Amino acid sequence: MNVMRHISVPNPQVEHVLGLMREYSLLASGMRVFASKDGDYRLIPIDSGAALTLPSELSEFSIVEHEGHPDERTDSDWWAHLRNLLGDEIVEAGGEAWPSSHEFFADMMIVRLEEEVAQYSSEIATAKLLSHPHIRLVLSDAGVLGELRIRDLTPIGARLHDEIVVENIPEEAANTRVLVRESGRSILCDPTRAYFSTKLQSERLETLGLAKELRSLLNRPLRVCDPFCGVGPALATLLGEPDLVGALLASDINPEAVEMLFDNLRRWDSKEYPGEPTPITDLHEDRIAGLADATDLQHNPELTGRWDLLLVNLPHRTIEFLPSLVPLLDRSGTSMVRGRVIVSESEMEDANETIQGTLPPRLQGTPEPTLKIKRDYSSTLRLCSFEAWIAPAP
Ligand SMILES: C[S@@+](CC[C@H](N)C(=O)[O-])C[C@H]1O[C@@H](n2cnc3c(N)ncnc32)[C@H](O)[C@@H]1O
């Protein structure tokens, strides 16, 4: 499921709005317009790179989060190219195993190859490149590796000077370090060196909404702590909102992530950041960033008791790490923990109880932190998130 932003437009105005969106390059490519449930509106998919505030001509329309509907025309193109390259018989025999879905990363496309069709990787890459002319590189994905959550990617096809190359792909075409546009910002990332997911934009927008609520309550900019920040995508969204982030701690255990984080912060924050990954340190007033094991931060009295908003995005281990992260919260006022957790549905109750038992008491009038399923992670596991409003210490 890929939830994305759509602009909701009454039917008579659809053509006019589509024209404006084309003019401003706001239309999500590869996705299509579809009718609202009551049929009175059309939902038009917004490009994930578009700024959060749309041009004033579009401000009268509401923006809704909805699962995106892929454009079948590009899809039918891909099948046609595949049939051309392999013949109907082989395509029929592959059945469901063909990678009909994919993930975009700037001008790269990532596909998962099932064993049955892996031998046709060159034809798959060629068909994908032919049906997606803006794509430079197709990579096959063998999953996520270890604690650093790095992708095991192999180039299977590239476009080089208008030619499609599927063997001995030269380095210049196989480069995986790219700038992804999201919510009006460019995020430098390299999925082979540091974790990054393009599918989490709606999660980041939800965090932005919660952060704004917390700011209203505290009536001042927030001190934000992101100790599993990766290349920093959650911070891109938060730093984009004026006067939302006061102080910031951004750290990760992966030096490659920290190197790209510094590059990103330099652009988003208009401040100087080191060219090399360095251990966590005060880089500017209100900016602490660098390499760190998040579970060690609790031992540094300069860092504990300081943060209003704590982001915990290491879904396999969030619950295990929570006790070591709680000391980072500023308990003199209201604070918030926003986390992601991978858990099976049968274990959700227990996980909720553990989270509630580990975190300090909740703010009166707010719900107990409870996991909400965001999507399937595997056939049994679910990717969930939660938010906890924490009361000031008595
Ligand atoms: C799921 S990724 C999330 C990254 C980022 N917050 C995002 O949304 O793209 C988890 C991150 O935690 C980092 N990590 C894993 N163990 C860690 C630890 N003990 N201390 C700090 N970072 C850690 C990984 O390197 C990875 O970048």
Note the topology.
Layout: E1 3-10, H1 14-23, E2 34-35, E3 41-45, E4 62-67, H2 72-86, H3 88-94, E5 103-105, E6 108-111, H4 121-131, E7 137-145, E8 150-160, E9 163-165, H5 171-174, E10 178-182, E11 185-189, H6 201-218, E12 222-226, H7 233-239, E13 245-252, H8 255-269, E14 281-284, E15 287-291, E16 309-312, H9 318-325, E17 335-344, H10 348-358, E18 372-376, E19 381-390
Parallel strand pairs: 6-7, 12-13, 12-16, 13-15, 16-17
Antiparallel strand pairs: 1-3, 1-4, 2-3, 5-6, 7-8, 8-9, 10-11, 14-15, 17-19, 18-19
Helix pairs in contact: 2-3, 2-4, 6-7
The structure holds S-adenosylmethionine (SAM).
Rg over CA atoms: 22 Å
The number of helical elements comes to 10
CATH evolutionary superfamily of the largest domain: Vaccinia Virus protein VP39
Distance, first to last CA: 42 Å
What is the helix/strand order? EHEEEHHEEHEEEHEEHEHEHEEEHEHEE
Q: Give the strand content.
A: 25-35%
Ranges where pLDDT stays below 50 over 5 or more residues in a row are none
Number of DSSP-assigned strands = 19
Average pLDDT number: 94
CATH architecture of the largest domain: 3-Layer(aba) Sandwich
What is the number of independent domains?
Answer: 3
The largest beta-sheet arranges its strands as 14-15-13-12-16-17-19-18
Structural class: alpha/beta
Q: What is the CATH top level name of the largest domain?
A: Alpha Beta
Outline: globular
Which structural traits does this protein have?
394 residues; alpha/beta; Alpha-Beta Plaits; GMP Synthetase, Chain A, domain 3; Rossmann fold; 3 domains; 8-stranded mixed beta sheet; 5-stranded mixed beta sheet; 10 helices; 19 strands
